[in-house]
């Protein structure tokens, strides 16, 4: 029996037989559904707010992230090599700003508010992970947490370091802020950046107001030398200056013009008493 | 003996650790930085190890799960079974907690791994110390009676066995570890606890001994770690969770206990005696399975198997999700190596780059709809970018500003003959003058005729330019020919200090890098002039020689002093063949500070890794 015979399977499958119709209908219905599942199953629901956690190496980013996840304890951590994203929930004691007007007994208010924390490595060679997360336009960030080690913000260089803790933190923060300034046109809402002054439990830690002061001073110096520095190979455009006007003394407030609101809050995730409430409050205000 | 063993993720979270002697966290951080980020050690070969401060680090990785297993021990000791231990622990850990580890977006892992680990150490020591005199002492009978109190009374097993629960994850699979706990409730004293007690007694009895017994003692000490109280709880009450049999938060534990399948935790012997299943059996099963898998993947030579595999491989090559093996990577990596060679990367650097890439990629999965070639390109892109990005961002002006007013900032420039030392020196001088600094140029080339005159011409030009632009000030310090360069350099620095100069730029004579007579004077030079920055000029035109140039100059300044950066000159003459950059940075790990890109004073640029990588990867 050849394939073109009247009784062959090919003729039958193209003919108006009940069997062929059922098969075709099934394929028609199932294909889009299956395709949908294939492509969208792994994709995360985009509604979960994302926070980027960055900062110089050894400032305690991963420790803060694990503390946010566990809430009561902090995992032991070492230098990170790869970025990671973790899912944390707002602690019941803190209420997100969107749930502000809800009654205490509203079951909706009891529901746990999830949030994603993107932890990035702080080593100078691996900082591009943070910038890629920053530029990722498919899911805009809800906020940025820049972690600094408040106990390592002196301009003196320690023996085991090739750069002082202050200039390392300041130049990284400068780069992040500059990247935010460049993309300011694409944002509708101002983006909040939290400078989390970590390790407040350490004896030598600077108080929050001083952390803000020394960072601002060092960023001012950094942007000045950057503005006068050599042109970068392969970059055609003019060097951008943070805050655009070198004449104005640099303060974090200058950046509000570019839709970046910076806040410095202290805390610690190790030691006898963990102090993270203020950070949680900051996070909750953005939810 | 082992000091510490840690299992951590690539994102830096310690999942499980066992510490016998505390190892400083900063030491481990240095290890991670040097080995995994800055690639300071040679990672090829199976016997990879890293030494620092009298400690030896050995490690292995599980790339697909992003895990690193690190063992730390004193360098003085030679522990032959470390590699075996690492492999076994990797196999065990990945198998036991596979489900938890592959769960995204969490760093929480419940891993009661201690018993497995201790058993491993014990087994390995046993095989190792067959020659050493045995000192096993059987526990005295009276102590066994004491122990019976420690074993749980059956009636008390009704209580909920665990208080800490992970609410967020009720679907956690029952871990095989459950029988450890259940075993405690059994009618007979468990073999393990008795052994542990014997170990404790051994520890007491053996107050002193030869080295091997000392080793043993320490190993067994680990077993004391978990103390079981009279009621079946852990004595020290840490929150490590052991009970995995109970998905509910509270209550119902009794029903669960009864539901435990007896076969899963023990076997009944022929004479009706119930034997507890040993932890070792389960461990061996897992290890055996892992070995089997290894052997299978190596074998796969059958006709049907290979052809099916090829078709599947081709398909997966298009669709993605293929687990990469060394054989898959060979061809494309060879292509990549040739490509790098064409871009003027030295062979040595190209080969080593590809080797590291292979090590990093074997065992990983390609992502959806990406071929092997694309994966390799992306990985190479990443590796090159990581390499070219400096460890610490250098801001020359920032550093000069810090020393300004206190002392002159000294920069000296070295290099092979004719690479453009004087030209680049005057370019840097021009850049500093633009920033209103006072610069002194020291003519340290007292050898080649015309060298001093050449610098004098540069200085005259620069003086002319600065006068026009109201920039800084520049002068030359020269003492003619034939004098010792090191002394001239030192005198120049003192002269600059007394005359309020901000920066001293020292030119040196060009020298062949493999002429030890010429190179040896550099050490004295570094000592006398004590420059803040020693920069080496290398030309982009040079090929394979760049590696040894960089290495020899890097080593020439004596112990404790290295090069601080490279200036790559003549970049405008090579187009996209910028391989020299890669070779030099690869050989030494020292960053490229400046690129010379033309004939004019302002043709000095800062390196941007992205640009270079893009030029290199361009077909």
From TrEMBL, chain A:
<keyword id="KW-0547">Nucleotide-binding</keyword>
<dbReference type="GO" id="GO:0005789">
    <property type="term" value="C:endoplasmic reticulum membrane"/>
</dbReference>
<keyword id="KW-0378">Hydrolase</keyword>
<keyword id="KW-0256">Endoplasmic reticulum</keyword>
<keyword id="KW-1133">Transmembrane helix</keyword>
<protein>
    <recommendedName>
        <fullName>Signal recognition particle receptor subunit beta</fullName>
    </recommendedName>
</protein>
<dbReference type="GO" id="GO:0005525">
    <property type="term" value="F:GTP binding"/>
</dbReference>
<comment type="similarity">
    <text>Belongs to the SRP receptor beta subunit family.</text>
</comment>
<keyword id="KW-0472">Membrane</keyword>
<dbReference type="InterPro" id="IPR019009">
    <property type="entry name" value="SRP_receptor_beta_su"/>
</dbReference>
<dbReference type="InterPro" id="IPR027417">
    <property type="entry name" value="P-loop_NTPase"/>
</dbReference>
<keyword id="KW-0812">Transmembrane</keyword>
<dbReference type="GO" id="GO:0016787">
    <property type="term" value="F:hydrolase activity"/>
</dbReference>
<dbReference type="Pfam" id="PF09439">
    <property type="entry name" value="SRPRB"/>
</dbReference>
<keyword id="KW-0675">Receptor</keyword>
<feature type="transmembrane region" description="Helical">
    <location>
        <begin position="20"/>
        <end position="40"/>
    </location>
</feature>
<keyword id="KW-0342">GTP-binding</keyword>
UniProtKB/TrEMBL annotation, chain B:
<feature type="compositionally biased region" description="Basic residues">
    <location>
        <begin position="215"/>
        <end position="227"/>
    </location>
</feature>
<feature type="domain" description="SRP54-type proteins GTP-binding">
    <location>
        <begin position="591"/>
        <end position="604"/>
    </location>
</feature>
<keyword id="KW-0378">Hydrolase</keyword>
<keyword id="KW-0547">Nucleotide-binding</keyword>
<dbReference type="InterPro" id="IPR000897">
    <property type="entry name" value="SRP54_GTPase_dom"/>
</dbReference>
<dbReference type="GO" id="GO:0006614">
    <property type="term" value="P:SRP-dependent cotranslational protein targeting to membrane"/>
</dbReference>
<dbReference type="GO" id="GO:0005525">
    <property type="term" value="F:GTP binding"/>
</dbReference>
<feature type="region of interest" description="Disordered">
    <location>
        <begin position="132"/>
        <end position="264"/>
    </location>
</feature>
<keyword id="KW-0256">Endoplasmic reticulum</keyword>
<dbReference type="Pfam" id="PF04086">
    <property type="entry name" value="SRP-alpha_N"/>
</dbReference>
<keyword id="KW-0675">Receptor</keyword>
<comment type="similarity">
    <text>Belongs to the GTP-binding SRP family.</text>
</comment>
<dbReference type="InterPro" id="IPR007222">
    <property type="entry name" value="Sig_recog_particle_rcpt_asu_N"/>
</dbReference>
<dbReference type="GO" id="GO:0003924">
    <property type="term" value="F:GTPase activity"/>
</dbReference>
<dbReference type="GO" id="GO:0006886">
    <property type="term" value="P:intracellular protein transport"/>
</dbReference>
<keyword id="KW-0342">GTP-binding</keyword>
<feature type="compositionally biased region" description="Acidic residues">
    <location>
        <begin position="232"/>
        <end position="241"/>
    </location>
</feature>
<dbReference type="Pfam" id="PF02881">
    <property type="entry name" value="SRP54_N"/>
</dbReference>
<protein>
    <recommendedName>
        <fullName>Signal recognition particle receptor subunit alpha homolog</fullName>
    </recommendedName>
</protein>
<dbReference type="InterPro" id="IPR036225">
    <property type="entry name" value="SRP/SRP_N"/>
</dbReference>
<keyword id="KW-0472">Membrane</keyword>
<dbReference type="InterPro" id="IPR042101">
    <property type="entry name" value="SRP54_N_sf"/>
</dbReference>
């Amino acid at each position: 029996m050849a394939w073109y015979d009247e009784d062959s399977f090919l003729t039958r499958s193209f003919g108006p037989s009940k069997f062929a119709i059922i098969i075709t209908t099934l394929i028609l219905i199932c294909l889009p559904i299956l395709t949908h599942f294939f492509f969208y199953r792994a994709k995360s629901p985009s509604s979960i707010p994302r926070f980027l956690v960055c900062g110089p190496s050894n400032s305690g980013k991963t420790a803060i992230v694990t503390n946010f996840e566990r809430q009561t304890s902090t995992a032991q951590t070492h230098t990170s090599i790869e970025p990671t994203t973790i899912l944390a929930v707002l602690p019941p004691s803190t209420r997100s700003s969107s749930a502000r007007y809800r009654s205490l007994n509203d079951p909706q208010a009891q529901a746990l508010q999830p949030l994603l924390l993107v932890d990035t490595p702080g080593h100078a060679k691996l900082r591009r992970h943070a910038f890629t997360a920053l530029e990722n336009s498919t899911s805009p960030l809800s906020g940025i947490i820049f972690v600094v080690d408040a106990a390592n913000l002196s301009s003196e260089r320690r023996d085991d370091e090739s750069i002082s803790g202050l200039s390392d933190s300041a130049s990284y923060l400068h780069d992040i802020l500059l990247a935010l300034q460049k993309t300011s046109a694409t944002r509708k809402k101002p983006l909040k950046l939290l400078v989390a002054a970590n390790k407040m439990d350490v004896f030598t830690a600077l108080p929050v107001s001083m952390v803000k002061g020394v960072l601002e001073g060092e960023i001012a110096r950094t942007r000045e030398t950057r503005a006068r520095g050599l042109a970068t190979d392969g970059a055609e455009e003019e060097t951008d200056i943070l805050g655009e006007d070198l004449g104005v003394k640099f303060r974090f407030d200058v950046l509000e013009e570019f839709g970046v609101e910076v806040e410095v809050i202290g805390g610690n995730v190790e030691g006898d008493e963990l102090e993270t409430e203020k950070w949680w409050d900051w996070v909750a205000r953005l939810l | 003996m082992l000091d510490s063993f840690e299992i951590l993720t690539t994102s830096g979270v310690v999942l499980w650790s066992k510490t016998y002697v505390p190892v400083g966290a900063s030491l481990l951080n240095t290890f991670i930085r040097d080995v995994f980020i800055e690639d300071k050690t040679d990672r090829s070969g199976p016997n990879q190890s890293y030494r620092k401060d009298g400690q030896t680090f050995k490690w292995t990785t599980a790339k697909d799960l992003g895990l690193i297993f690190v063992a730390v021990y004193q360098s003085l000791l030679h522990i032959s079974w470390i590699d075996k231990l690492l492999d076994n622990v990797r196999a065990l850990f990945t198998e036991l907690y596979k489900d938890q580890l592959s769960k995204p977006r969490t760093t929480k892992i419940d891993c009661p791994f201690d018993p497995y680990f201790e058993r491993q150490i014990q087994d390995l020591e046993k095989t190792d110390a067959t020659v050493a005199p045995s000192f096993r002492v059987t526990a005295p009978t009276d102590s066994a009676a004491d122990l019976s109190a420690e074993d749980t009374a059956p009636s008390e097993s009704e209580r909920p066995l665990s208080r800490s629960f992970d609410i967020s994850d009720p679907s956690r699979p029952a871990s095989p570890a459950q029988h450890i706990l259940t075993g405690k409730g059994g009618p007979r004293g468990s073999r393990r606890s008795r052994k542990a007690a014997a170990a404790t007694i051994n520890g007491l009895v053996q107050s002193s001994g030869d080295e091997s017994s000392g080793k043993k003692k320490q190993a067994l000490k680990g077993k004391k770690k978990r103390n079981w109280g009279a009621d079946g709880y852990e004595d020290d009450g840490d929150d490590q969770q052991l009970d995995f049999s109970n998905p509910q938060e509270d209550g119902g534990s009794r029903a669960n206990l009864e539901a435990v399948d007896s076969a899963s935790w023990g076997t009944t012997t022929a004479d009706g005696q119930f034997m507890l299943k040993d932890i070792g059996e389960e461990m061996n099963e897992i290890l055996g399975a892992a070995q089997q898998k290894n052997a299978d993947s190596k074998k796969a030579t059958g006709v049907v198997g290979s052809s099916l595999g090829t078709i599947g491989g081709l398909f997966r090559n298009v669709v993605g999700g293929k687990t990469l093996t060394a054989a898959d990577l060979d061809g494309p990596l060879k292509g990549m190596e040739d490509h790098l060679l064409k871009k003027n990367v030295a062979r040595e650097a190209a080969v080593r780059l590809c080797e590291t890439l292979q090590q990093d990629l074997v065992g990983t999965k390609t992502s959806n709809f990406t071929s092997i070639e694309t994966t390799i390109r992306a990985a190479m892109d990443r590796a090159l970018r990581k390499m070219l990005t400096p460890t610490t961002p250098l801001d020359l002006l920032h550093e000069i500003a810090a020393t300004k007013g206190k002392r002159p900032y000294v920069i000296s420039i070295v290099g092979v003959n004719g690479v453009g030392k004087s030209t680049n020196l005057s370019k840097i001088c021009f850049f500093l003058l633009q920033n209103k600094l006072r610069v002194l140029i020291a003519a340290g080339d007292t050898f080649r005729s015309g060298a001093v005159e050449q610098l004098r011409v540069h200085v005259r030009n620069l003086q002319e330019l600065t006068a026009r632009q109201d920039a800084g000030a520049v002068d030359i310090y020269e003492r003619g020919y034939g004098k010792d360069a090191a002394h001239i350099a030192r005198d120049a620095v003192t002269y600059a200090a007394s005359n309020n100069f901000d920066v001293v730029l020292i030119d040196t004579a060009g020298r062949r890098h493999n002429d030890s007579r010429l190179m040896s004077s550099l050490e004295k030079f570094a000592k006398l002039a004590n420059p803040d920055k020693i920069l080496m000029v290398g030309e982009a035109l040079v090929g394979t020689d760049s590696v040894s140039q960089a290495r020899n100059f890097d080593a020439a300044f004596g112990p404790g002093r290295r090069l601080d950066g490279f200036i790559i000159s003549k970049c405008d003459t090579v187009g996209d063949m910028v391989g020299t950059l890669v070779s030099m940075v690869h050989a030494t790990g020292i960053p490229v500070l400046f690129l010379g890109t033309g004939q004019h004073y302002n043709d000095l640029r800062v390196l941007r890794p992205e640009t270079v990588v893009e030029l290199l990867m361009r077909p």
